[in-house]
Write a structure and sequence with these properties.
The protein is α/β, with parallel strands linked by helices. The chain is 38% helix and 22% strand. The structure holds S-adenosylmethionine (SAM).
């Protein structure tokens, strides 16, 4: 409950970066974390934009001692909450795990190591093209050659916005949607539609080899 209230408050104050009024459900978390199940050996995972941690909890089900699990979150209140959860609710699951919360923009993160999995909750559709481009490049830079990226977006949002643009006689396809569509066309390997989420969402999975 504490985390849901915190999410509402931060959405009110920072709607552009928080991007959604409701935290994700466990069903969406499960879809985003599904590739972790089949990985053999210690794995390195980084979650971008964990907010109050609903997807983090889905990821934690697949984290074992010896794994690395880092979070990158720009909102300081969320960072504080995540660190508290790591010390309390998640303490047992994080035993033997190299866990860290980086409280910064993901575009600013400088890490020596690469990750096997990038799992992101960033609201890409809210950002301008140049920001989207630097986030997409950032995701790829964080991954090993065989690494996988998973992120979600709300179903139908882009289609509705494109239809509205046509109705309002605005530019039919905004450059940012072209950018996202061509990223999807080039690298997407799998998707999962999740209707038990508000709004319903699609988890997209990407590989770069
Ligand atoms: C749509 S919310 C998702 C929260 C949570 N993962 C969920 O699914 O309910 C997006 C989160 O990304 C964070 N965020 C937005 N832009 C960011 C950036 N450039 N770097 C790191 N975190 C960012 C926001 O503060 C927010 O917590």
């Amino acid at each position: 409950m504490r985390s849901v209230l915190s999410f509402f408050k931060e959405f009110k104050d920072n709607s552009m970066t928080v991007g959604s009024i409701f935290p994700s459900t466990s069903y969406l978390a499960e879809a985003l974390a599904k590739n972790l199940k089949t990985f053999e050996g210690p794995k390195r995972i980084i979650e971008i934009g964990p907010g109050t941690g609903p997807i983090t909890e889905g990821i934690l089900k697949h984290v074992k001692p010896g794994d690395t699990f880092h979070l990158v979150e720009v909102n300081e209140s969320f960072c504080e909450l995540l660190n508290k959860m790591a010390e309390n609710e998640w303490k047992e699951q994080l035993e033997g795990v190299d866990f860290k919360v980086h409280c910064c923009f993901m575009e600013e993160i400088g890490l020596e190591h690469k990750f096997d999995f990038v799992i992101s909750g960033l609201p890409l559709n809210n950002f301008k093209s140049d920001v989207i481009q630097s986030i997409l490049t950032g995701y790829q830079n964080l991954l090993t050659d065989n690494g996988k990226l998973s992120y979600f977006e709300y179903l139908y949002v882009r289609k509705i916005k494109e239809k509205l643009n046509v109705a309002l006689k605005r530019q039919v396809s905004m450059p940012k949607y072209k950018l996202l569509n061509s990223f999807v066309d080039a690298y997407q390997v799998d998707t999962d539609e999740v209707f038990l989420n508000f709004p319903p969402a699609i988890a997209r999975h990407f590989a770069f080899r």
